Amino acid sequence: MGLAAILFAASTMGGHGIVLEQKLYRHFVSEADLIIQGEVVDKAFRSSSGADGEEAREGSRLPHTFVTIAIEQTLKGLSENPESLTIRYSGGISQDGEAIMATSGTPMLDVGDRGVFFVRRAPESRHPHPQPLVGLKQGFTRFLEENQVMNEMGYELILTDDPVFAARIHPDDVRDYEVLAQHLREPDNAAEEKLLSRLSEAAHQIIREPESASQLPPEALTFRLSGPQAQRLMETMEDSEHSLRELLQRLMPQKFRAISGSIAEAILYRDLNHALFNRELFMPKDLQEVSLRPETKELVEQDPNEMPIGQVLKRNRRVIEDLFPNLVVRSFDRSPVLGRYRPIEAMMTTRIGEHEVRMKRLPVPEGEGEAPEPEELPKGKVLGQEAFLEHLKAMIKIAISREGQKEESNPVVGFDPDEPFTVSPPKPSAPPRSLSLPAREPRNDREAAEFEALQESEGNPVVDRP
């Protein structure tokens, strides 16, 4: 049998409208409707049919994979069948056996694979294009022999209590940037006014006039710091073992910066992270009208000028979470983060019908895509299976109590591979591009030294202009 086509894609899947964006475990816990530990026991392939029984249009008959998971334990939510769940995702072999479609965004699952699955409820649209795991293949944490745990991107997991990791604001931490801008446009209390005063002029402009983002000058879109900005931030860091540049890279790594969906979102993401450095961003007198959690109160009652910079960052993050409890995802003091990059063969190959397909890792542009491993490994303990499950259960319990979530009473329903289905092919999307900034000479020796130490190697702005 000759295959008509084999389709591969890199980590940015522009041709299929799918972009793999790195998520954190707080997003998996918050966004998953169902979290289960289990083992893949069956794998089947089916192609979508034409709408309403009509003959399929060209491009609408797409191969899909149905994976059945035997549930060992349910960690969050309910499955309609407590013993097993069948998920469906795009990719596989066509029913006529003449074509294979595979993308790197979907997990390379085979019978016998074990681990934890972070499952989304299937969309209720008539012709859903399901991606059933949170963060695509990132929503599967793989259990290996000898108690090993890896995420599906090939990284070990480290449990860290580094306050910088707890403090940093990920672009997906803000659930709705438009609503956040509305709050800041008309502050309800002194704390919101204080936060607004610490944002850049560019942020003020898009908060006042959301449609004006496309008119901002290029220099307003960069992550580079001006001399005065750098000086102000450096004054907060006398006790830090890291330079300002290193700390900013840890707060806002390059792989996070391209996630924002618009100029406005990216500027707010950048400015919120910059605001975390301010030791007097939130003082007790500013918070009299804000309902604070006990752990936030404990941080607020301490003198910020006596706190290490990492604790200052976390203190300000906690207050922002309490200012906007329904808008900002809550982080955890201790959380699994990526460690060493150690991909195994099972993550790069999968069986599709009678064929073994190996995912080809295409070259990615400099400064984009997956780094072989983090520039600096976080401090902490490499997680084994029992420790990972124990901590994940603790995270779920905290998330439910913090965010007022209730145990899901509406069960997640699996897919039936024998039932005909239709899908709407996703719209193509282009990966983000870089915009070169105009260079200028430093005005004095001090600024020259700051430029050398603080300007990032890529110098990319927040996002490209339309």
What is the structural class?
Answer: alpha+beta
Shape: globular
How many helices? The count is: 14
**Main sheet attributes: strand count, strand direction, barrel closure:** 6 strands, antiparallel
Taking Cα atoms only, what radius of gyration do you get, to the nearest Å?
24 Å
Order of helices and strands: EEEHEEEEEEEEEHHHHHHHHHHEHEEEHH
Number of domains: 2
Q: Percent of residues in beta strands?
A: 15-25%
Mean pLDDT: 77
Q: How far is the first residue's CA from the last residue's CA?
A: 46 Å
Helix content: 25-40%
SS elements, strand count: 16
Uncertain runs are: 4-18, 52-56, 125-129, 360-374, 428-440, 453-466
Widest beta sheet: strand line-up:
6-5-4-9-10-11
Summarize the structure in words:
The protein is an alpha+beta fold and 466 residues long. It folds into 2 domains: 6-161 and 337-402, no CATH class; 163-333 and 437-454, no CATH class. 27% of the residues lie in helices and 17% in strands. The strands form 5 sheets. It has a 6-stranded antiparallel β-sheet with strand order 6-5-4-9-10-11. The chain has a 3-stranded mixed β-sheet with strand order 1-8-7, with no helix packed on it. The chain has a 3-stranded antiparallel β-sheet with strand order 13-12-16, covered by helices on one side. β10 and β11 (149-151) form a beta hairpin.
What key phrases describe this protein's structure?
six-stranded antiparallel β-sheet, single chain, 27% helix, alpha+beta
